[in-house]
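Propose amino acids for all 283 sites.
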């Protein structure tokens, strides 16, 4: 029964760490995506240098704009070729072109992804709207919203699984302590007859429940770090630059994460054992 109890506690703690890992990874993905999101404004070929310069100054004066980068059409073409070096069809098609098909481009980065709508509206309502060759901007917020939606669903599922394991842990500890007390009921009765206080009798069972939590935490840390070491390379390959080094993350937050988990598990097991011994040990 002790083995079963500790195993369930390990699974409960492990599910919590899985939830923390998913949260850390999705938060990192959101942060990276937010950092990469920008607006590319294709300037009409009819725009003069003076108009282009004034448009750039106008954009820089929008308080929500964090950065404006001008890219000439030759630079845009060069970047496009670099991004498609592995595609021979595109490279051949570019060579067949008689002139550069790209426009001068202004790349805008906002301080906050929520500000892009405000920037869109300011540009559309300005005199420089006629200089824009692309009327259909992609909405950067949709990318962020999609990742956040996935994050919320994973978080809810993780809380559900962790909650199920916590309930099972409570019931398992409750049953283990009850059975232990039942097998020692005669000894407990004798202790009460000779004047033992309720807390003196309760003590061993409370300590047992605390030991269950401590032992489960030790096993969970060993197993979890083993899994982290095994999966770290695969996670890095899957997420690439969007991923996070979970091993480093848990090392840097070791005391906070595992300390809080240990305290929570001790409280859970002590509470469960407290309910279990009330039937036999009432003051």
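Proposal:
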């Amino acid at each position: 029964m002790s083995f079963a109890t500790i195993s369930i506690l390990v699974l409960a703690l492990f599910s919590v760490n899985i939830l923390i890992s998913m949260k850390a990874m999705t938060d990192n993905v959101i942060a990276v995506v937010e950092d990469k999101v920008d607006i590319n404004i294709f300037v009409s070929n009819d725009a003069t240098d003076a108009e282009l310069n004034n448009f750039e100054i106008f954009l820089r004066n929008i308080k929500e704009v964090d950065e404006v980068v001008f890219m000439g059409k030759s630079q845009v073409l060069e970047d496009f070729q670099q991004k498609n070096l592995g595609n021979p069809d595109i490279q051949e098609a570019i060579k067949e072109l008689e002139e550069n098909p790209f426009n001068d481009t202004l790349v805008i980065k906002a301080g906050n992804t929520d500000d892009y709508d405000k920037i869109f509206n300011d540009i559309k309502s300005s005199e420089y709207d006629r200089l824009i060759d692309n009327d259909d901007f992609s909405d950067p917020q949709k990318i962020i919203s999609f990742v956040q939606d996935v994050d919320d669903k994973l978080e809810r599922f993780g809380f559900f699984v962790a909650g199920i394991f916590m309930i099972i842990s409570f019931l398992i500890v409750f049953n283990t302590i009850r059975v232990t007390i039942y097998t020692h009921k005669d000894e407990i009765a004798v202790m009460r007859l000779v004047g033992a206080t309720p807390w003196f009798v309760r003590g061993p069972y409370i300590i047992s429940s605390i030991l269950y939590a401590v032992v489960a935490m030790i096993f969970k840390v060993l197993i979890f770090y083993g899994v982290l070491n095994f999966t770290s390379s695969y996670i890095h390959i899957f997420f690439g630059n969007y991923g996070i080094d979970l091993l480093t993350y848990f090392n840097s937050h070791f005391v906070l994460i595992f300390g809080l988990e240990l305290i929570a598990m001790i409280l859970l097991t002590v509470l469960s054992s407290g309910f279990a011994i009330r039937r036999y040990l009432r003051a």
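Residues 140-183 form the longest helix (44 residues). The longest strand covers residues 65-71.
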